[in-house]
């Protein structure tokens, strides 16, 4: 691990105004190697400093932080199986949604269900908006391609809520509470926290601040399986630590199974919920990213992790600099092979 190199390249990216700011946490085992906030949480309308307590819109990190652990707990308890079909998991008759009658939990977790990548919802109530997604035709043949889909985890989030008998934003407490993730939540109270601002939308003069950035998550009231969760770098570090070193809130056997590549036969690198960045004996490096500029990587062999939270969509989503920054950081933290 080249921690000084990692810190230098991140600071240089902010100093060059490639991103407004970041919070980073790099750890190995029980040790913390780098914990830092640098730059600005907001540029417009006025500069606000980034701190380690700044709350970020996690975007698609919601998938693995909120939904993945709940599905694993249901699998471990026997309430679900990987081959459980979507209608059964939702308590619905398969003939009501014939195109989804064979869709399995495994396919949803690995993005092989054939669902469209994303789409806007229709309707007035949250239930009507979800129904519009359930009615959408498949875009690909199930099981034949690994194509990333927000709908997969929207569906999984609703399955978890249905199985647990409570809304997703309450159900996550079964994981976040024991892990001490007290500031990780959907729809956080704006008066309580300082946030990393996201983009200035068309026709607006102020950035999105303290409310969910993702359009589909907003249409679903800020609570969705694919996006909507907020957190800070310390809570995400607690989550990473629990995955790698074990915790009673997370079923260890299912965690280990989740980090293995499940779509290699399709030419893909999808694990159960995660992306496999480096496949190797002794433990893969897996992770996930979020559209707003968030990232989490886990090294299952060397028991190290990296949480990088940035506000790369502030003030505009047109910023494409973060990909190269992430690649350089990954090489500094996990080495080049």
Automatic annotation (TrEMBL):
**GO: which molecular function terms?**
hydrolase activity
InterPro entries documented for this protein:
Beta-lactam-related, Beta-lactam/transpept-like, Diverse_Enzym_Activities
Could you tell me which Pfam families the record lists for this protein?
Beta-lactamase (PF00144)
The record's annotation in PANTHER family points to:
BETA-LACTAMASE-RELATED, BETA-LACTAMASE-RELATED DOMAIN-CONTAINING PROTEIN
Question: Where in the numbering of this chain does the Beta-lactamase-related domain appear?
Answer: 7-328
Q: What is this protein called?
A: Beta-lactamase family protein
Keyword annotations of the record? Hydrolase
Q: Which domain of life is it from?
A: Bacteria
What SUPFAM superfamilies does this protein's entry cite?
beta-lactamase/transpeptidase-like
